Fold this protein.
Amino acid sequence: MNFDFTEEQQMVRDSIARFVQDDYDWDTRKSIVASEKGLSPDNWKLFAELGWLSIPFAEEHGGFGGNIVDLSVVMEELGKGLVVEPYFPTVVLFGGLIARAGNEAQRAEWLPRVIGGDVLGGFAYVERQSRFALHDCLTTATRSGDGFVLNGEKVVVFNGEQADHLVVLARTSGEQSDRTGLSLFIVEASAAGIDKMNYPMMDGQRVANVTFKDVALSADALLGEEGNALALVEALVDEAIIALASEAVGIMGVLNTKTLEYAKTREQFGVAIGSYQALQHRMVDTMMAYEQCKSLLFKALCEYKQDPAMAAETIHALKVLIDRNAKHVFGEAIQIHGGMGMTDELDIGHYAKRLMMINTTFGDANFHRNRFVETAFAA
Amino acid sequence: MDTAYSPEDLAFRDEVRDFFQEAYTPELRQRMRSSHKEGAEEWQRKLNDKGWVAPNWPVEFGGTGWTATQKYIYETERSLAGIPNVIPFGLVMVANVIMAYGTDEQKEYFLPRILKSEDWWCQGYSEPGSGSDLASLKTKAERDGDDFIINGAKIWTTYAQYADWIFCLVRTDNSGKKQEGITFILIDMKSEGIKVNPIISIDNHHSLNEVEFSNVRVPAKNVVGEIGKGWTVAKALLAHERTGIAGVADVKRAVRVIKEVAAKEENGGQRLVDDPGFQQRLADIEVELMALEFTELRTLAAQAAGGFPGPESSLLKIKGTELQQATQELLMEIAAYYQGVLPTDLEPDALGHEFTTEARMSYFYGRAATIYGGSNEVQKNIIAKYVLGLE
């Protein structure tokens, strides 16, 4: 029994924490979000130099060879700083899919580029009608000569505005909601026939709705086996959920710390508001909400590290608890900050917005409670 | 014990329904969205022409003389028609104070102008250091002949950028208890020395402001009630503000909207509206709402004789705002990935989503409902002290 982090993990944690503290203060983050690209290319280069982009990838491709705990540490720290640079879409999703599904040539071509910070990627999987059902897919890739022709639309593609390459989930056979017949493709975002509508999100991300009209793909654009992508995507999503939960835990910790600090200094009726028992109990509740999330995250990490399949049920539970407790934590953070919590100027609301996007990504509490019931109650 | 509608009530309901149908035109609905101020003023003038703009005023000042049931019917129909409430600062808040405490001159000047929406009012209560602890306010009013000279700042002032007048609590005396020495005064926003600084809120909009006063000269005849007795006036007014924000009818409408949009969302073939987990959450809201509706009716019935509502209005405020927030949260969840879409000028067709902007803005602005009008924590203190007698 051991819940300690390794020395190496502690070093990565410290290094990101130092970056956030020294180079990513609130005003800097605001100006990056407001900048033309919505990210800092210099920061991205720095992340590559510091090795953060290499964490989840195998050493043979130039990676750090990290496991799920290493990734969790990175995500938690990036969450604390509300870092908008597209680590999650590029490294966890785009890189993660290629690492899982790619053949040797594809891995050798793409992973060093991800690790070196030379590519900005994204994963196009949401459709207008799909909600959280990954297999609800109308985008089609039809065989044509040696390659494929891609048609359809993906919406709310994370990092869609800046991504130069996307992994696209498309249907190569079957009907709209079939679980088979789905395939993955690596697509250049500027290819002929691709049209993007970019828009910003409330958590500072730049996303896009991407339309594909007769986009010609060569045979080597196919990532993994034709028609069998769903299991791969679901496996990636499990890892991605743990990554997002880690980010959420980082954010919840910051919100609790900031709220506690405010309660200790904000005076009303001649005393600090934190001296009121009614508020004290509520801050105890948010502290417990945070600790419970952290515990369930640790359980998911331990299981996943041993065998990803072991963590399936816990991952649904984690998504449910993070959703519920994050709402509790940010709700109290805004409420206890009073009018100040309502301002766009203060960071509290922005942390809340990121938590809300984390909650909805890959399924909210309601969705995962149903999946949990299916898994846990199945005799 | 009877809430059945009489034939007269039913006829009244039809009259209200017909009027809303005819008067709240699609053009007006659009104008409300694009320019809140112009839309609201136009609608309030239409209501005034009909004689319905101030249902809660005494008849002598231009009220409707409706029974509690009629007021309830009116409110329900308004909400079901998707019509926003009137802007409360003039018609509900300051008007009640002027009627109860104002001089004849103040009544004659301000009340008709408020009915005709000729002045836009805002509320100057909170200060940067005084939120929940309202009585600690510091904005200073010093006597200078027939005038007061005002110095200080107010914050969270909704729509101050449009306002012609602000009603303020100011400190005229520092010597006694902090509740004493507060005075309620009306200030012309065009006065020299007033500066309005916008505050962008987490819904990314500008409705809140900070209002600074530097040596603003205000005639002493603009004081409402006695000098130094502003705290009594303010407390009565806050109770009015609270009943207004229970918003039962609006939550009812939100539940209806939620059912409509949840019927259009599917997770891999299962409609969200058919999802048991979703149904239970909505049911929990509806159960609480049914009860709140009757809590509100009980309060209305008790107030039917007129006068200011008592501390029980705090209960309406707490429960009402909690339910508002619960429906706003659910609507965001229904929007799923789209809940985060920031720009409001994207065509729904191109975006692929209909109600994201409405959901996001009402969700975030709605976070303030448990903070303003005396935070819900303060409301609980009021109930503990004045209803339960706990000190």
